[in-house]
Design brief:
This protein is α/β, with parallel strands linked by helices. The chain is built from seven helices and eleven strands. It starts with a strand and ends with a strand.
């Protein structure tokens, strides 16, 4: 006997009582499987929960082993050197950007990564970097920060010689962009990052700044760059300050600890 007859234009949909009973059995079996699965998962969670601490210890140990194995493989296959830890001197001879060094060494190309020397002490702690576009200014300051991070993590660094003081903080002000979601312009975003750095900086900080003042006019950008540079000089932190404002080295040239470097 047909039940639940539904007419749709040129076709008829209908059911039978045995078919409806079979559908109900399938739904009941499906619900029972879901219930049993939830029960099994909950039992597993309760069993693991009592032993979660050993699992965390195991995961930490495996992560540490993976990091040490990666460092060991890196320093034995690449031209890396063990850094010295000093009280106040940061010195690098023929240092290279660790990521670019890996990329260029793995490529079959005649292009070579040019190494650079770095020297900074409390007497030469604020270094203004000038140079033409694409002269390597951003790569230069990024390599300093990355090599300092590698050294303090216990890894060798890509250089012929390296020595670092112990840094308590690392600040980087690099490329900034507008934040449409927060209704913040590129200039406001840059100033917010600068304010955070100035609030938290200390003498044991390493700071890299790339092209401060790009989000406003040349005159205003120079004035802002001078004011912020003076605050960074007064902090006694180790600072590398990349700029296209050629008046900045001349204005700050007489300040104690300020050095001007030019990349060709």
């Amino acid at each position: 006997m047909l039940i639940n007859v539904i007419r749709k234009k040129k076709k008829i949909e209908c059911q039978t009582l045995p078919l409806m009973k079979m559908n109900q059995k399938i739904r009941d079996a499906h619900n029972e499987v879901i219930s049993m699965s939830d029960k099994s998962v909950q039992e597993l969670i309760n069993a693991v929960r009592s032993k979660i601490h050993p699992f965390f210890k195991i995961s930490e140990s495996l992560a540490m082993l993976d990091m040490l194995a990666g460092m060991a493989q890196l320093v034995t296959t690449q031209d890396y050197v063990k850094p010295d830890l000093t009280s106040s001197t940061l010195a690098l001879r023929s240092s290279r950007h660790p990521i670019l060094d890996k990329i260029f060494s793995s490529r079959c190309t005649t292009t070579k990564l040019i190494p650079n020397d770095v020297y900074s002490t409390p007497q030469h702690r604020f270094q203004i970097i000038t140079g033409a576009n694409m002269s390597g200014k951003s790569t230069y300051i990024r390599s300093i920060a990355l090599n300092a991070l590698l050294a303090q993590s216990g890894c060798f660094v890509p250089a012929q010689y390296a020595s670092f003081p112990i840094f308590h903080q690392l600040f980087a002000l690099l490329a900034t962009d507008s934040n449409v979601e927060a209704n913040v312009s590129s200039f406001a975003s840059e100033m917010s990052a600068v304010a955070f750095i100035l609030r938290n900086i200390e003498p044991r900080s390493l700071v890299i700044v790339d092209e401060l003042g790009r989000g406003t006019s040349t005159t205003d950008g120079l004035a802002i760059a001078i004011a912020i540079a003076e605050a960074l000089v007064a902090s006694n932190a180790y600072v590398w300050f990349v700029t296209h404002f050629h008046d900045l080295p001349r204005i700050l040239g007489e300040r104690a600890g300020v050095v001007n470097l030019h990349l060709n």
